[in-house]
Specification:
Length: 331
């Protein structure tokens, strides 16, 4: 009997818990430049749910296997595959389709992790920590002691920004909707944590002794984004990477004319498309080190097997989670 794997598949767009199925597929056979990766872990990100629903900007040809992120172990090499070895733990390329037990993939698309890294943490490095790292480096030159502000600070990307900033010596103002997460984010390294409201500008000025805040990270939009913009110093920059409120960013003319604020966006898919292998490696290297030492960790609320996909999807769709939902693919 030939060896098989289990893989999550959707053949039509719709409610993820209803349209996703787990099927058996043949064990992958690598082409000459490919390797076979036996998967270990893959998170369920909001973008994954959006892709299954048909709401993500990029649609995979159907039938499709979801999964933007994942990590696994190289178990077989194609005849001309280079750069990886059997036994290496690797991070898969962005958006490959990781909710499966094994896959064949070009060797040059993989990023090798330090062997001692927790595979669950490795599986979650490629979206939120990379997003946070690039936003803290690519738009405003920050030095140790400089301030930035962000909303959605309790999100995975927000928490990554807090942890990265703490290690780099940047200071963060973190805006949340729920008072019950304030102390938790302070414990993770958030210098200032505030519940969003109409007095945000005054509260930030008080908590930072009136420091100039030149970078804002916006994942919400609507009124929350406007309140962040009001905090920004002249010539500051707002980077929008999400739209949790489903409301547009509204920019008063005066912010453009008199404060010369800059408004731009960031989508990690575009960064991956443009980045060279060397640029990717240079971004991953410090994140690997931070993760190994425990300075950068993504909270996990629950682990599920592929056979529990329906329950996992329902859990991932819940509001007010305290961490990520992850597939344990070695179970």
């Amino acid at each position: 009997m030939s060896k098989t794997i289990r893989a999550a598949v959707y053949e039509t767009h719709g409610n993820p818990a209803e349209v996703l199925r787990v099927v058996e597929q043949p064990w992958p056979t690598p082409a000459a430049d490919e390797v076979v990766v036996e998967m270990r872990a893959a998170p369920l990100n909001p973008a994954d749910l959006n892709a299954i629903e048909g709401k993500y900007p990029v649609r995979a040809p159907l039938p499709a296997t979801p999964g933007m992120e994942g990590a696994g172990i190289v178990v077989e090499l194609g005849s001309s595959a280079r750069g990886v070895a059997v036994g290496d733990q690797v991070v898969l390329p962005h958006g490959f389709g990781t909710w499966r037990e094994a896959c064949a993939i070009p060797a040059d698309k993989l990023v090798v992790t330090p062997p001692e890294m927790d595979p669950v943490q490795a599986a979650m490095l490629k979206v939120n920590p990379i997003t946070a790292w690039r936003m803290l480096h690519d738009f405003v030159p920050l030095a140790r002691g400089d301030w930035f502000i962000q909303n959605a600070a309790n999100s995975a990307a927000g928490r990554a920004a807090i942890q990265i900033a703490r290690e780099l010596g940047y200071r963060s103002v973190n805006v949340v909707r729920r008072a019950d997460v304030v102390e938790e984010l302070r414990a993770e390294g958030g210098d200032v944590v505030l519940v969003d409201g109409e007095q945000l500008r005054e509260q930030v000025a008080e908590q930072t002794d009136g420091a100039a805040v030149r970078l804002a990270l916006n994942a919400v939009g609507g009124d929350s984004a406007l309140r962040l913009a009001k905090v920004l110093a002249p010539d500051g920059t707002m980077v929008t990477y999400g739209a949790m409120s489903l409301q547009p960013v509204r920019i008063p003319n005066g912010m453009l004319i008199f404060k010369n604020l800059k408004f731009t966006g960031f989508w990690v898919n575009k960064w991956y498309d443009a980045a060279s292998p060397q640029q990717r490696a240079e971004t991953f290297a410090p994140l690997f080190e931070m993760s190994k030492s425990g300075l950068l960790r993504t909270k996990v609320e629950a682990m599920y097997t592929l056979d529990e996909a329906k329950a996992a999807l329902e859990h991932a769709a819940l509001p007010k989670r305290s961490g990520k939902v992850v597939f344990d693919l070695k179970a």
